[in-house]
């Protein structure tokens, strides 16, 4: 069966590019941060350097891992969903559900392994550079040498593999066994994530204002909450769409199309919610932290500045990663819609109307995603701010939130409209003829 | 934007000539792989006629229909639909030209899976910004035998039912000309008969003009006349066709043209 999977990968490498990219980026991020564990574990590393490295590898590596897991999983879900027609064809031509499942999961494993293997080199360079930033900021002794070892390798490969195979398994099970008690497990997971997130956020109050790991609990909490909310997002979207009536041909078509595609866009919503939550929460907390450090006047300002740079670098890497994943899954989802756009055009839609429809759909998605992401971010920011300072909501929060939302809106609209425009270059008659 | 032909204007009433093509050519590819799909086609179809287009695979039937319907632009030549010449080359312009004049029925239906039967049917009106008369849409759907399937989605319908939705959608804008490319190509003979009757009715009862590509002599016998196409050129014409006469002609057409060009 792995042979079949390999063959199917070889036949359509382009289809799997999005999945490969997400596996590659995900593995690269995990390996980069976890190689700090390997570096810290070398003999002869002084205890202060080792602790700094281990702490940031655990904190950032920890929630980064969680993030990568869901980002890879959501891209893979988008990919399998889109191939439901192809899978249906396979089923009709005699493949059993078990065979199809093995093929799709096998394919995911092959792609994840390839992505992880490709990620090793870049992760080494990235980890090296990251260590350099630590050393420049004086957090780690200059004598420490970089090491890329078993922790980085095993965690990178394992997590990518589990995320890809797990998501493929769940998605293909849904695709080959339609409407069988679906949603139960999802609801359970969603509430589980919400409860875990709430607990994690509440734990923030158990820390003292100057604990090095203070940021970990609310950051984890915000991410878990955003995962939970993202899983419930399709339902929220459904409710919203039931009451939404837009005028104009594009609005009319967008609402009706979206109503039927809620399940399809759940992966994109996941990326959108994660991006908003993670970026808003971590950037705001970092800026609260920096202000608090500056106010306490404990450290020399040069050191504080360096620490800020370091943390922003780390947060930036994570934010950019989620953003790339968002673009990736949105691009993958939109390129598959060429046939649908073709049918709209043949029914009398001008290219402008098709783009208008895509624009309205994306705007609705963005609004829902940003809203849920903001709620999750707020749930992390408020406890952190309360423990770290005297306030509740930091003054810089609205500005950061606005910036993050603008980026989210620009990225989602830009990607889906740009991709749709490209799809429109194919003549309508040819576009509907190509088998999805 | 659109020049009006000498036979009368769209506004003052339908032209007697529903479709006219003058020296229409269309070439695909370039260099060695150049294929002349249409080689100077000139033809004229009167209003209220039902014409079948037949010919070997690759003879240019689909290309002819797409050029005539404004789904594609010919390389040269003139296309006049209902007295209005098709000009402009942008997709948006061609779309607006098609909206009130042309309906199209495809072998693969090309309905939108996300919309119900009624929504699919009124979609062209919505897109054209025209008033949506739901009662009229229901009437048309009832007439094609789908009065009890209004809220269904295409994937809940049989092929024959889907094609009838497609016909209802093509009729709803009250176009002058309806083009159908192998509309019965994917249907069993009973569903095919129903579809052909509906097309015939559009001509006889509602005075529309229908141009239909088909490979099936029986389907062609529903038309008033048959145009034969070979190698991108008109290769004959048959009035009041019977299935046998059509089959006979096709066989001879096959003599001249090597199969599978
Ligand atoms: N988009 C295209 N690009 C290149 N060549 C094309 C294209 N469309 C059609 N052709 C060529 O033009 C010729 C006419 O094609 P057309 O589709 O009109 O044939 P047809 O008569 O409809 O055939 P069939 O009965 O098989 O549907 C063929 O040789 C075909 O290969
Ligand atoms: Mg054809």
UniProtKB/TrEMBL annotation, chain A:
Residues 64-177, 314-427 form the ABC3 transporter permease C-terminal domain. InterPro entries: ABC3_permease_C, Macrolide_Exporter_MacB. The chain crosses the membrane at residues 16-36, 56-78, 108-131, 151-172, 193-216, 267-288, 310-333, 354-379, 399-417. Pfam families: FtsX. It comes from Streptomyces brasiliensis. It is a multi-pass membrane protein. This is Transporter. It is found in: Cell membrane. Keywords: Cell membrane, Membrane, Transmembrane, Transmembrane helix. One of its GO terms (molecular function) is transmembrane transporter activity. GO terms for cellular component: plasma membrane. Belongs to the ABC-4 integral membrane protein family. It comes from the Bacteria.
UniProtKB/TrEMBL annotation, chain B:
Keywords: ATP-binding, Nucleotide-binding, Transport. SUPFAM superfamilies: P-loop containing nucleoside triphosphate hydrolases. The keyword Transport applies. SMART domains: AAA. One of its GO terms (cellular component) is plasma membrane. Gene3D superfamilies: P-loop containing nucleotide triphosphate hydrolases. It comes from the Bacteria. Residues 19-256 form the ABC transporter domain. This is ABC transporter ATP-binding protein. GO terms for molecular function: ATP binding; ATP hydrolysis activity; transmembrane transporter activity.
């Amino acid at each position: 069966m792995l042979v079949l999977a390999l063959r199917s990968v070889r036949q359509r490498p382009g289809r799997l590019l999005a999945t490969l990219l997400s596996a590659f980026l995900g593995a690269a991020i995990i390996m980069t941060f976890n190689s700090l564990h390997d570096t810290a574990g070398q003999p002869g590393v002084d205890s202060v350097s080792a602790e700094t490295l281990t702490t940031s590898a655990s904190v950032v590596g920890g929630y980064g891992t969680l993030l990568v897991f869901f980002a890879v999983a959501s891209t893979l879900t988008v990919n399998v969903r889109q191939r439901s027609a192809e899978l249906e064809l396979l089923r009709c031509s005699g493949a059993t559900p078990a065979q199809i499942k093995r093929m799709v999961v096998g394919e995911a494993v092959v792609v994840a392994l390839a992505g992880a293997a490709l990620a090793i080199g870049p992760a080494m360079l990235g980890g090296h550079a990251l260590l350099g930033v630590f050393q420049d900021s004086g957090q780690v002794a200059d004598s420490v040498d970089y090491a890329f070892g078993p922790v980085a390798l095993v965690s990178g490969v394992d997590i990518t593999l589990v995320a890809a195979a797990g998501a493929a398994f769940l998605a293909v099970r849904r695709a080959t066994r339609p409407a069988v008690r679906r949603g139960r497990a999802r609801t359970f997971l969603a509430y589980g994530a919400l409860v875990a997130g709430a607990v994690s956020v509440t734990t923030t109050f158990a820390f003292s204002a100057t604990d090095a790991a203070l940021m970990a609990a609310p950051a984890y909490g915000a991410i878990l909450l955003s995962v939970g909310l993202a899983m419930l997002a399709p339902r929220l979207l459904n409710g919203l769409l039931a009451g939404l009536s837009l005028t104009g041909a594009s609005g009319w078509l967008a609402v009706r199309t979206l109503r039927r595609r809620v399940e399809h866009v759940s992966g994109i919503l996941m990326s959108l919610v994660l991006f908003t939550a993670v970026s808003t929460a971590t950037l705001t907390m970092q800026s609260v932290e920096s202000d608090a450090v500056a106010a306490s006047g404990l450290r020399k300002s040069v050191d504080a500045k360096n620490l800020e740079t370091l943390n922003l670098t780390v947060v930036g890497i994570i934010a950019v990663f989620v953003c790339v994943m968002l673009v990736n899954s949105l691009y993958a989802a939109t390129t598959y819609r060429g046939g649908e756009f073709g049918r709209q055009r043949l029914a009398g839609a001008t290219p402008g109307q098709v783009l208008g429809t895509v624009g309205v759909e994306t705007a609705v998605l963005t609004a829902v995603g940003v809203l849920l992401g903001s709620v999750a971010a707020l749930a992390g920011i408020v406890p952190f701010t309360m423990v770290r300072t005297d306030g509740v909501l930091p003054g810089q929060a609205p500005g950061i939130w606005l910036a993050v939302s603008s980026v989210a809106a620009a990225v989602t609209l830009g990607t889906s409209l740009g991709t749709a425009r490209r799809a429109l270059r194919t003549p309508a008659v040819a576009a509907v003829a190509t088998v999805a | 934007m659109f020049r009006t032909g000498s036979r009368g204007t769209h506004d003052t009433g339908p032209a007697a000539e529903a479709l006219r093509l003058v020296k229409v050519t269309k070439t695909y590819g370039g260099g060695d792989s150049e294929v002349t799909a249409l080689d100077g086609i000139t033809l004229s179809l009167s209003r209220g006629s039902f014409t079948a287009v037949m010919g070997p695979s690759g003879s240019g039937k689909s290309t002819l229909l797409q050029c005539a319907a404004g789904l594609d632009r010919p390389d040269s030549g003139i296309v006049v639909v209902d007295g209005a010449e098709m000009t402009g080359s942008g997709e948006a312009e061609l779309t607006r030209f098609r909206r009130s004049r042309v309906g199209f029925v495809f072998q693969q239906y090309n309905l939108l899976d996300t919309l119900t039967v009624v929504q699919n049917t009124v979609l062209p009106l919505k897109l054209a910004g025209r008033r949506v008369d739901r009662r009229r849409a229901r009437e048309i759907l009832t007439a094609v035998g789908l009065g009890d399937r209004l809220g269904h989605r295409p994937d809940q319908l049989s092929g024959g039912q889907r094609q009838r939705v497609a016909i209802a959608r093509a009729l709803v804008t009250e176009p002058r000309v309806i083009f159908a490319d192998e509309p019965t190509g994917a249907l069993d003979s009973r569903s095919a008969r129903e579809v052909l009757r509906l097309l015939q009715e559009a001509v006889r009862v509602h005075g529309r003009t229908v141009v239909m590509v088909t490979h099936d002599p029986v389907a062609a016998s529903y038309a008033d006349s048959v145009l034969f196409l070979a190698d991108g050129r008109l290769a004959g014409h048959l009035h009041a066709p019977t299935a046998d006469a059509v089959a006979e002609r096709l066989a001879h057409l096959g003599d001249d043209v090597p199969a599978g060009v």
